[in-house]
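for the writeup, i need someone to sanity check this before i put it in the appendix. the sequnce is what the collaborator sent (i think, or maybe the updated version? ugh). structure was predicted straight from it, no edits. if anything looks off just tell me and ill rerun, i have time this weekend
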Amino acid sequence: MDIEALGRNVSYVRGKELMKKVCTVFRLGVVPYDEALSFQYELVERAREKKGKEHFLILLEHEPVITVGKNGKSNNILASDETLKKNKIIVRKIDRGGDVTYHGPGQLVGYPILSLAYLKKSVREYIRTLEECMVQTLSAFGVKGGGDTTTAGVWVDDAKIGFIGVRVSRGITHHGFSFNVNPDLDAFRLINPCGMMDKKITSLENLKKDITMNDVAKEYIDAFGKLFGIKTVVVKTHLTYIPKVDRNG
């Protein structure tokens, strides 16, 4: 892997201000939830050590898991323990916002670890930017999506396709979003997604055929870099490896 590229300085001019912003994107495959969560927290600590001057985005798919946010209600999990065990779906209570959601293969999951102060964004602006990244990704495939003023996430007509549940701690973001590319939509029947009853869930596969996860990830990364005004450098590496990035090189 070419680590040298990670140390390049990329300069942006925003008004009269010169900014140097690089985001390392870890483009991984299907990863167990607990392993990914541990890696996410490693990167959060790394970002704090660097006082928000290093930014990361983890993009992956999960083995089947239902996560319950800090304000989530367990009764929004509709399936019995026996059904979950039969389908090899684990349940995890975590410290993000939001209620109950499902992750599994075929769903692009992203965990941005960013300094909002360094990027000069409020929490609200950050969430809206995450939504717009998914909206622009849909647009790249000829699909019109949009947000909802009452809840975070992205919809296509009356069906939800993108989900957001974040946490901001000491100015550093973690947790993030999920975007349905081609998951098993039947799994969403096991829960009230985001605490919503009787809401439709869709996927990009339902709307456009012959689109791969790699296609979607590429478009998402392009939208992410453009909307956050940040240079993205993509690496594929083992979860326990965090590159030592020399920002002065």
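The chain has one domain: 21-235. Confidence is low (pLDDT under 50) at residues 1-19, 245-249.
thx in advance!!
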